[in-house]
Write a structure and sequence with these properties.
It is globular and about 45 Å long. By secondary structure, the chain is mainly alpha-helical. Helix 2 crosses helix 4, helix 8 packs across helix 10 and helix 9 packs across helix 10. The protein folds into 2 domains: about 90 residues, no CATH class; about 60 residues, no CATH class. The chain is about 60% helix and about 0% strand.
Length: about 180
């Protein structure tokens, strides 16, 4: 069962406010091509059904953000507070093949506590607990769960619920992999 208690919500709430460890301009300069990035990562794909490499997707995302001068964490966080500009950036990012929950995860990593990324781990957890839902339905469900929990635990956000479910599901996924 998923448990979220006040003593643990601080560990899950948002990201630490610190300078960029590796600014986007620097990332693009060090890894200008997919081959350069693949040398230090792996060839995982965005989809098991012929998706592009995650390295290619990351570079395409980087190009969109860089073209809009969203090259620092501070600028991306500012974007999150401008819905019209955010929508325009999201339309461009959605053109990158294999985009599913990736954009939500990007915004979560940038500091949005109100985004969730209902990936396979989240969907499996929900299904195992009687809620076999779509990604969109899972997103709504996690926000509603967070709203309900926040009535008595104000530090609980959708991000906290997403992360807590992910942490609860990770050992189950490990056992599933070990059994095969």
């Amino acid at each position: 069962m998923l448990k979220i208690h006040p003593s643990t919500t601080a560990q899950f709430s948002g990201v630490v406010d610190s300078p960029d460890a590796f600014a986007l301009d620097e990332f693009i300069a060090v890894y200008p091509t997919e081959a350069d990035l693949l040398r230090v990562t792996n060839a995982q794909r965005t989809s098991t059904r012929g998706g592009i490499t995650k390295a290619d997707a990351a570079l395409r995302y980087a190009a969109v953000l860089s073209n809009r001068d969203l090259t620092t964490l501070e600028r991306v966080r500012e974007l999150l507070s401008r819905p019209d500009d955010l929508e325009a950036v999201e339309r461009e990012l959605a053109l990158v093949p294999g985009d599913g929950v990736r954009r939500r995860y990007l915004w979560m990593l940038a500091g949005s506590d109100h985004d969730v990324k209902p990936d396979r781990m989240i969907l499996r957890y929900l299904a195992r607990h009687g809620a076999a839902v779509s990604v969109a339905e899972a997103r709504t469900m996690l926000v509603e769960i967070a709203d309900k929990l926040a009535e008595t635990q104000p530090d609980v956000t959708p991000w906290v619920v997403d992360h807590a479910i992910w942490l609860a599901e990770r050992p189950v996924a490990r056992r599933r992999r070990a059994a095969t």
